[in-house]
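Weekly structure sync - notes
Attendees: PM, LS, DV (DV joined late)
Agenda: review two folding runs queued last week.

Item 1: First target. Sequence and structure tokens pasted below for the record.
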Amino acid sequence: MDNKSAILALAALAQNTRLDTFRLLVAHEPHGLPAGDVAAALDIPQNTMSTHLAVLTRAGLARSERQGRSIIYRADLACLSSLTLFLVKDCCEGRPDLCKPLLAELSPRGSAHKVKS
């Protein structure tokens, strides 16, 4: 991922409804959700949700496919992975031990044993 793509993706996520929408789509992988279900789940008018979904799609964070009369939206997990790696690639100036807390949070074991404060 390059700077331009990262900025586009981060800008798309820098809005409350779009961030909630993206997180909802990630939670419904691998099947995705019809656009109307996304709008209903977040209590957003369908025409407004269409605009937000278009922004996420242009940023590469979501993709859509027609299934019958519905348009199913899915999170683009490859883009999420690229964005995450782009953000942390040069993390810790070559000292991976400093990134251990981040990696622990991302591992299934780390998130399952997370202590709430």
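Item 2: Second target, run right after the first with the same settings.
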Amino acid sequence: MPIGITAHSPAVVIARKDFPAHDLNEFVAVLRQQGGAVRQAHGGIGASSHMACLLFTAEIGAKPTLVAYRGSGPALNDLVGGHVDFLCEQSVSVAESALAGSVKAYAVSAAERLATLPNVPTAREAGINYEMSVWAGLFAPKGVSPEVIAKLADALDKALDEPDVRERLAQLGGTIPAKAERNPAAFDRFVRSEIARWAPILAANRAEK
């Protein structure tokens, strides 16, 4: 049973630091031209890094070679080491690497640039319709009473208004949902819309590894 959404974390398209493309348009051109010669890392089938790149490569019409890892951590480590070419992963996981210059960041999948990565453009700035977030939320087991759900949702709402919570999430590249999005009914609608959005993408790419 849905309680409420806690945060959004847009994806960042990052590549090894010596990847030859200078901006997102050049990067997309390389992916389209070289196809399977470009190695895309991800943290396993269904992981955020897998799904974020499925949406991105579907939008630009590219078919890179997918390299699966047991988690996004090992995938990011190999990207930093130059063993694979690119990765799409939530900002809270890769912002520090991008700021340190150990990877090259080409775009974020948000409607606006992130405060933590102000020099990284949105995909839309390059004319690419790539907008999504890796979100987190709270759920309760089926059968929990509406009164308990309401109490938990209220506690979550208050926690998300705490200045320290908001500041820390912003530092990590995350965003807090508007108040109207935090209640159980709104969260339930959001989850259903996400299922409808992602189900056909996953079905079309079920054989991708």
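Discussion on item 2: Residues 134-194 form one domain.
Action: LS to circulate a short write-up before next sync.
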